Automatic annotation (TrEMBL), chain A:
This is Sugar ABC transporter permease. It comes from Roseicella aerolata. It is found in: Cell membrane. Pfam families: BPD_transp_1 (PF00528). Gene3D superfamilies: MetI-like.
Length: 306, 290
């Protein structure tokens, strides 16, 4: 199982005998250089963001201490509220679809078939490709008059779509790109789980005359549950953080129809140079991510127990 | 198994059974085809756009096969836009950010694995959870104050936010998987812990270092948002440069696709070559760039 999530379960394996602990301390020097870097580029930004969020600060003008005013303003800012709702909608769609498809894909790639290695490599290419580059290709494909996607739609007898150029279709369309982009990661995480499953239960089920569906429902799914939950957590976090493709394809438009928290944050900080307010957005955004991650970890504990 | 009495009360005649088997295989083949075709089609369309002239690229119905294929778009990309400068910037940034991350991250992974410092590892994990954009405001202000904007240094430093967690993360799981006996034997023989690391653990960890290098490089190369905010006119990396081509030009799909393909080609080739390492690294850590 991917260990990163396992670590959040707590310091279960941290306990060392007292004698070994002093011995272990000698290894602290190995961590010092990295610790310096982490403090400089990760910890300092967190603390500084908290500090800046207490100021009314437009870049290029005087900053003014306002305490919690930015947060108060944020909670009454309708534009931010919509961004939060949009982000949640986007996240739900961009989690459910890749999870279902990724599970199906993992089951396919778990079977042996000719050219499996090549097919799997091709399948994971979208995940490794430069997001900006593929986002640009999608933009060209979404063109309402000249895009290849509308041509495909008319070929199968469907009416052309406005894709990212209409407020109604922009979110599903962006989710489609996200699905294309990140389903492979879900597939890989679940495929790793499938590879670790024991074979005995299946043989027993076969002897008992279980159908493939019954074997999947009653053996595979329960054994796979921990891996599915890990994939779910990683996917949720990544969907919440989605930025590159949305920014390149729509920049939050049309109007504000695809303005997620991340886009809102970017615009506040680097289009309006409203760094104090934007820092408050960072803090609230981080809180939202942590709450959702904690919720999912809690679910994971329950999955483990049952 | 065929003909075993009492086994699987399915179709009776072998011919029907074979037919059903064939249908199931065909169905499975179609499913695999459906899974890989979106990936294949997008990349092929990218290639097709980059090899056609503007007339064919904006034709309706679309022209799929470049006839004849032309390299004009690629020529145009190299002729304008300081493409080579931006490519050089990307190379410098990705290699520096990866190199520095290895320098500090490999020993750190070793130390954390040896000390079983779960909390340090959790800190790294939270860095993975945080949106990359949220580091940018303080870093932007800091670099402005230090008057470093307009050089590549801020971009390299900001990319450490991505590369250091990846390297540390992959190396922790790798060093934890190594048997400790060899180092302990070296320590008993009077080696210092640094020597045990340098001459015993490090050579054994080479596959892990390869995985960490590849992943750190790819996610640094692909990163967009750090350079977009921190780069000046001369210090853009390729993803920023290619995004600007869309923003400031009318429909000019040929050169745009050619540039996009050139940007992502190194990563795609690396994925094809090092597929095994990438899969191992991603499933071990679930790492991804900020």
């Amino acid at each position: 199982m991917p260990r990163d999530i396992a670590i959040l379960d707590g310091p279960a394996e941290a306990a060392l005998p007292r004698g070994r602990r002093n011995y272990a301390r000698r290894y602290a020097w190995f961590v010092v250089p990295a610790a310096v870097v982490v403090v400089a580029v990760i910890l300092f930004p967190w603390l500084f963001t908290l500090y800046v969020s207490a100021f009314d600060w437009h870049l290029g003008s005087e900053r003014r201490w306002v305490g919690l005013e930015n947060y108060v303003r944020l909670f009454t800012d309708a534009r931010f509220g919509w961004a939060v709702l949009r982000t949640l909608l986007y996240t739900v769609l961009a989690v459910v679809a890749p999870m279902v498809l990724g599970l199906a894909a993992a089951l396919c790639f778990h079977r042996r078939f000719p050219l499996r290695g090549l097919a799997r490599t091709v399948f994971i290419l979208p995940m490794m490709a430069t997001p900006v580059a593929v986002a640009l290709v999608w933009t060209m494909m979404f063109h309402p008059q000249l895009g290849v996607l509308n041509w495909l739609l008319t070929q199968v007898g469907l009416p052309p779509s406005m894709w990212v150029y209409s407020a109604e279709t922009v979110i599903p369309t962006l989710v489609m790109v996200e699905v294309w982009h990140w389903t492979p990661l879900v597939m890989l995480l679940i495929l790793g789980g499938l590879a670790s499953l024991p074979t005995d239960p299946y043989e027993a089920a076969k002897i008992d005359g279980a159908s493939p569906w019954q074997a999947f429902r009653h053996i595979t799914l329960p054994l796979l549950a921990p891996f599915i939950v890990v994939a779910l957590i990683i996917r949720t976090i990544d969907a919440l953080k989605a930025f590159d493709t949305i920014y390149v394809i729509t920049q939050g438009g049309p109007g504000q129809a695809s303005e997620t928290i991340n886009i809102f944050l970017y615009l506040q900080a680097f289009a309006f140079y409203n760094v104090g307010y934007a820092s408050a957005v960072v803090v609230v955004f981080f809180a939202i991510i942590m709450v959702l991650a904690a919720l999912l970890l809690w679910t994971r504990q329950r999955v483990k127990v049952t | 198994m065929v003909g075993q009495p009492g086994h699987a009360p399915g179709p009776r005649s072998p011919a029907i059974r074979r037919l059903r088997r064939l249908a199931a295989d065909a169905g499975f083949g179609l499913a695999v085809l459906a899974l890989v075709s979106p990936a294949v089609l997008v990349f092929l369309w990218m290639l097709s756009l980059s090899l056609k002239n503007e007339l064919d690229n904006t034709a309706w119905p679309p022209v799929f096969l470049p006839d004849p294929p032309t390299l004009d778009n690629y020529r145009e990309v190299f002729a304008r836009n300081d493409f080579l400068l931006f490519a050089w910037n990307s190379v410098v940034v990705s290699f520096s950010a990866t190199g520095l991350a290895l320098l500090v991250g490999v020993p750190a992974g070793y130390g954390i694995a040896k000390m079983r410092a779960i909390r340090a590892a959790a800190l790294i994990l939270i860095a993975r959870i945080t949106p990359g954009l949220s580091y940018l405001i303080p870093l932007f202000l800091l670099f402005q104050w230090l008057e470093l904007t307009g050089t590549l240094l801020p971009i390299v430093i900001s990319h450490l936010v991505i590369t250091v967690p990846i390297v540390v993360w992959v190396m922790i799981s790798f060093f934890e998987g190594l048997p400790g006996e060899l180092e302990e034997a070296a320590l008993v023989d009077g080696a210092t812990i640094w020597q045990a690391f340098r001459h015993v653990a490090l050579p054994l960890a080479r596959p892990g270092i390869t995985v960490a290098t590849i992943l750190a490089f790819i996610f640094s190369w692909n990163n967009f948002v750090f350079a977009m905010v921190l780069a000046g006119r001369e210090t853009r990396t390729l993803p920023v440069a290619v995004n600007n081509m869309l923003t400031f030009e009318q429909i000019s799909w040929g050169p745009l696709s050619a540039a996009a393909l050139l940007v992502t080609l190194p990563v795609l080739l690396l994925t094809l070559v090092a597929q095994k390492q990438i899969v191992a690294g991603l499933t071990a850590g679930g790492v991804k760039g900020a």
